[in-house]
Automatic annotation (TrEMBL):
<dbReference type="InterPro" id="IPR002048">
    <property type="entry name" value="EF_hand_dom"/>
</dbReference>
<dbReference type="InterPro" id="IPR000719">
    <property type="entry name" value="Prot_kinase_dom"/>
</dbReference>
<keyword id="KW-0597">Phosphoprotein</keyword>
<dbReference type="InterPro" id="IPR011992">
    <property type="entry name" value="EF-hand-dom_pair"/>
</dbReference>
<keyword id="KW-0418">Kinase</keyword>
<feature type="domain" description="EF-hand">
    <location>
        <begin position="337"/>
        <end position="372"/>
    </location>
</feature>
<feature type="binding site">
    <location>
        <position position="90"/>
    </location>
    <ligand>
        <name>ATP</name>
    </ligand>
</feature>
<keyword id="KW-0106">Calcium</keyword>
<dbReference type="GO" id="GO:0004674">
    <property type="term" value="F:protein serine/threonine kinase activity"/>
</dbReference>
<feature type="domain" description="Protein kinase">
    <location>
        <begin position="61"/>
        <end position="294"/>
    </location>
</feature>
<comment type="similarity">
    <text>Belongs to the protein kinase superfamily. CAMK Ser/Thr protein kinase family. CaMK subfamily.</text>
</comment>
<comment type="similarity">
    <text>Belongs to the protein kinase superfamily. Ser/Thr protein kinase family. CDPK subfamily.</text>
</comment>
<keyword id="KW-0808">Transferase</keyword>
<dbReference type="InterPro" id="IPR017441">
    <property type="entry name" value="Protein_kinase_ATP_BS"/>
</dbReference>
<dbReference type="InterPro" id="IPR011009">
    <property type="entry name" value="Kinase-like_dom_sf"/>
</dbReference>
<dbReference type="InterPro" id="IPR050205">
    <property type="entry name" value="CDPK_Ser/Thr_kinases"/>
</dbReference>
<keyword id="KW-0547">Nucleotide-binding</keyword>
């Protein structure tokens, strides 16, 4: 739920959670009839995490400067008082968890990070704390910046480099799927470099929308980011194949600099097979790793893909940051009541329950709502 590590202040996760309409349970913090003791014997408070490391994070860590901010919380530089080792701490305010679904998302994010085995390309969980007002997730600190930012900064970007990046991303997908985890929100912003060294590892940092799954299990909740969302998500009938689709979109952007839905042609056999609209025919993560283009990554051309691709990547990255900053400003100035009102209006306009509205639905919806919204 929100980025885990170092992203520029202003990065928001609000734009990524395109969720379908779902019956929402009231946040227990706003009612008097819901309480969970979680073994504490105190039925007056709700605890989000099942087995946190502790209750008082400040007894072990110093929280420093702000590193990033999302829809539900703030990420701080975090220093171990005993060792001086630095981490990232994502503090999620319980007041921002407005529904039981939000609470379950935070709980599941921590459980998934605990469940996944150590992997060089997945950010590691150090500890989790929970006090009366917030949940604190202490994680490995990633200071190397976002994937696209480094590509743009290098100035020398090759097909070989793109192949290496894609291998890393798909290996993360394969690891998740082998352990019964579907990511559901793969996108460039959710991959950061561990440090600023040229040889730094690329790491997946955000499991806020991830879920556990069993073979053959299907899901119907609309989540993710529109650019990277597989078509079957909108049909509310999907499985882990959606992660391969998202990785395919990332690959296309790496090669061309723009999302494929902006272009007239597709590039490469691998991209087409990863973006097969039929999830049954789409490559699995293992099949992607076995594809000749990935297998022969070290033999791929080591010449720049061109200034046009680099310029497109830079423009795409800048626009993403601008959009996130705008959404964050809007979100920070909305009261709970205003946010609920906007969601109610959106649900009214979204007649097809797709998680998005077209121009005609917007026009009809505004007519129904009257001058207050116009």
């Amino acid at each position: 739920m929100g980025n885990c590590c170092v992203t520029p202040t202003g990065a928001s996760s609000s734009e990524k959670k395109v969720k379908g309409k779902k019956k929402e349970k009231k946040n227990p913090f706003f009612g008097d009839d819901y309480a969970v003791t979680n073994g504490s014997g105190n039925a007056d408070k709700l605890w989000v995490l099942k087995e946190p490391t502790g209750r008082d994070i400040l007894a072990r860590y110093d929280l420093g400067r702000e590193l990033g901010r999302g829809e539900f919380g703030v990420t701080y530089l975090c220093t171990d008082i005993n060792t001086g080792e630095k981490f990232a701490c994502k503090s999620i305010s319980k007041k921002k968890l407005r529904t039981a679904v939000d609470i379950d998302d935070v709980r599941r994010e921590v459980e998934i990070m605990k469940h996944l085995p150590a992997h060089p390309n997945i950010v590691s969980l150090k500890a989790s704390y929970e006090d009366d007002s917030a949940v604190h997730i202490v994680m490995e600190l990633c200071e190397g910046g976002e994937l696209f930012d480094r590509i743009v900064a290098r100035g020398h970007y090759t097909e070989r480099a793109a192949a290496a990046v894609m291998r890393t991303i798909v290996e993360v997908v394969q690891m998740c799927h082998r352990h019964g985890v579907m990511h559901r929100d793969l996108k460039p912003e959710n991959f950061l470099f561990a440090n600023k060294k040229e040889t730094s590892a690329l790491k997946a940092i955000d499991f806020g929308l991830s879920v556990f799954f069993k073979p053959g299990e299907r899901f119907n909740e609309i989540v993710g980011s529109p650019y990277y969302m597989a078509p079957e998500v909108l049909k509310r009938n999907y499985g882990p194949e959606v992660d391969v689709w998202s990785a395919g979109v990332i690959l296309y952007i790496l090669l061309c600099g723009v999302p494929p839905f902006w272009a007239e042609t597709e590039q490469g056999d691998l991209v087409m097979k990863m973006l097969n609209p039929d999830p049954k025919l789409r490559l699995t993560a293992q099949q992607v790793l076995e594809h000749p283009w990935i297998q022969n990554a070290k033999k791929a051309p080591n010449v720049p893909l061109g200034e046009t691709v680099r310029a497109r990547l830079k423009q795409f990255s800048v626009m993403n940051k601008l959009k996130k900053r705008a959404l964050r400003v809007i979100a920070e100035h909305l009261s709970v009541e205003e946010a609920a009102g906007i969601k109610e209006a959106f649900d009214l306009m979204d007649t097809g329950k797709k998680g998005s509205i077209n121009l005609e639905e917007l026009r009809v919806g505004l007519q129904k709502l009257g001058p207050t919204y116009c």
